[in-house]
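Example (one chain per record):
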Amino acid sequence: MNFIKTICQYAIRSAITLVLAVTLFVTNLFWPAASQAIAQALPAQINQPQSNQSWLTGILQLALLNIPSQLKYTKDHEWVLVEGNIAKIGITEYAERQFGETVFAELPKVGQVFDQGDELGTIESVKAVAQFYTPVKGEVVEVNQAVADEPELLNEDPYGDGWLVKIRFSDSSELNALLSSQQYSDYIKESSEA
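Predicted structure:
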C-alpha cells in the first residue's frame, strides 16, 4: 500500500513539474517579466540549481534565463554591448544565479589598460568569490560606481543597472570571438549536460 502511495505521489509531482516547466517556458517567450516574477517565487531548489538536479529542473532553469539577443557573450559568462568603440561589460543572469546574493564588487580604475582576457575585477557573493575578465583589449573609460556601492544591483538587474565597466577598444576583430545569444544559450545547455 505504501509503495502505491509513493508511486502516486511521485507521478503527481512529476506531472505538476512538467506542467510548470512548459508554462514557464511559454511565458518566458511571450512575457519575460512575468516569468521572472514566477521564478523569484519558486522554491530555492528549483530557482537555484543544485548538482543533483533532475533533467526537468535543468530545462526549467534554462527556460527562465534571460539572454538578450542584442548582446554578445563570453564563455566566462560576461555580456558585452558594443556602442561604437566602447564595450559595455557585465555578468550574465546565468552567472548571477550561480553566484547567489552579491555582497561585494571590486572594479578597476578609470584609465587602466587591459589586454584581452585580463582580469578586470572580482565579485564576492555569499557562495564564492569569482573574477570577471575583459573580452577586448583597451582602456577603462567608466566604471559603475553604483555597483561598488550597492552590489545587490548585480542580482536585481544584471543587464541594466548592474553593468560593471566600459572599455574603449581599438581592435574590433577581437569581438569576433564573442558568442551570439543563441550560441551562449547552447553553450550553457552543453555545460549543464556535461
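Caption: Helices lie at 2-30, 32-41, 44-47, 55-64, 93-99, 145-149, 153-156, 181-193.
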